[in-house]
Design goal:
By secondary structure, this protein is mainly beta. Helices cover 0% and strands 37% of the residues. The radius of gyration is 11 Å and the shape is globular. The protein starts with a strand and ends with a strand.
């Protein structure tokens, strides 16, 4: 999943049905008005890379606390 360069994206509500383990990568980058990743709260692991960067309005990673393993 690559969520990058979306200047009007404020949340990830459309991904709320994702759950369990993801194979591959999750990249959340350069989303200038993204304020929440809480919709990812049902994920338990990312079997690859997890990267969150360049999201200036994202003040917490609440929603990612259920991810127990990455890699």
């Amino acid at each position: 999943i690559n969520i990058s360069n979306n200047p009007l994206l404020a949340n990830l509500n459309g991904l709320a049905s994702l759950q369990g383990a993801l194979t591959g990568y999750v990249i959340i980058s350069a989303n200038n008005v993204l304020t929440s990743v809480s919709s990812l709260s049902r994920l338990t692991s990312v079997q690859g890379t997890l990267l969150v960067s360049n999201t200036p309005l994202l003040s917490s990673l609440d929603g990612l606390q259920g991810i127990g393993t990455v890699g």
